[in-house]
Sequence to fold (495 residues):
Amino acid sequence: MKTNAQILLFVLCFFIIESKAQIYFNNRYDTFGSCDGTNGIDTMFNGYVSAEITCSSVSYYTFLLNSYHYDGTINKSKPFLIPNTNFLPNSGKYVRINTTQFYVSGERTYKTDTTMAFLWRFNFNLDSLFYKEYGYINQTNVVTSFIKSTNYIYMVGYNDILSTNSDVLLIKTDTAGNEIWKKKIGIAGWDESAYTIKSCANNNLLISGLKRGHNSSYGGDYVLRVDTSGAIIWQYYYPSTNYAAGSLDVMELPNGNIAFTGDDAFNTGPDGVYRKPTLGLLDANGNLIWRKSYGGKFVGHDFYKLLINHKNNFVTCGTIGYSSSIVNGMAYEISQNGDSIFSREYAMMPGSQNYFRDVIQTNDGGYCFAGFVSPVFANGGTGTEDIWLLKVDSNFCESASSCGYGVGLAPLSKAEELGLRLYPNPANDILNIELEMINESPVTIEISNALGQVVLSEASISQTVKLKTNFLPSGMYYLSVKTKDKTVISKFIEE
Fold:
């Protein structure tokens, strides 16, 4: 006969096992057999909720709400149609009002260069409760992000008048959606846009976006700290030498420092501007502590969203484009001093356009990415543009099999300390490998692509190796050196 203590121990063990069970899915969702997409994903009502667009004969971009079970199957799906109107929901998270209701913000376009910002309230059944619009009449009013404090809602985006001058748009309402004020933040001769708003511990607001000269191809990261009246406390601008995406996300850390995404823009090619994503850290007064770039120069190579995971590291998601036709979703885990720990690319349809727009950490410690896929028929793509949700585990793997982030593997930033050095990086047909501190012989050298597939494997007894990489398509690869009791991993770019 089991004692009460034994029964309690069994229940606790069962609960621990259940809490660590991982869920995996890689799903594509098509609503009306036409275009679909999303910019955000959130956890709500014992599952996921995503505000999306779908194409219909009534409205080119129809507003769509989907709720999903944790296994990725759809719970409820409801479109909201207004003739001759395009909707675009905000990026990232939504505002929860109580245990049964939430808000989505965004923009509604009803004629050329004329949009209104909206705030739309729903319940857990995805029923519409009320809808309100904001902005300046007969102008472009776009809301990209919003947050809720105890008593107020703040929406941010940009305002423009027939493409003559773009300013940051900041709107304050009460929690019932009644407008308190709206204002533009910007200066003449410059175009400013906001992509994200976050709250600070002292109730200040952080806004990140893009600043550039009007009608200029030069721009860069833009971060502002404002008070609850919308007055600027400080602003930070990091210019680029070409058309930059700007800072797509920002957040305050527990110590008061501020992390922000950005990019370095380089030359423009036939497929667009080549960029490297960056992550930066400011102190509480807006002074730059460090700013680092990641990966190689690729088209649309950007970080979209940023979070702190359960390991106290940064996690970002974004895109990397090898051409206008081939785009992959990507994820990075980065330490708090800016060192890359792990990165990986993902594709629902390899050879097509695969976009990540948001990421959340899930209850089982994994991650759920949200975005959309668009087929490139010449490369074997099928169907229409569809919503894409990918659920991976805490090691960014798509199944229980290891994808290069296993226990005992050296972090990428430590590879040189353990005796592995690669050059040139990016490589161009030849990759030199130095194994100065790895004295065991022989070793196995493997190269894996961004999907975890081994594309080369060979044994070596030399501490210097020259590999021909001319057979590799352009992209990011992982090189692992395996000895009897240790594996060291680094990454390189093949141009």
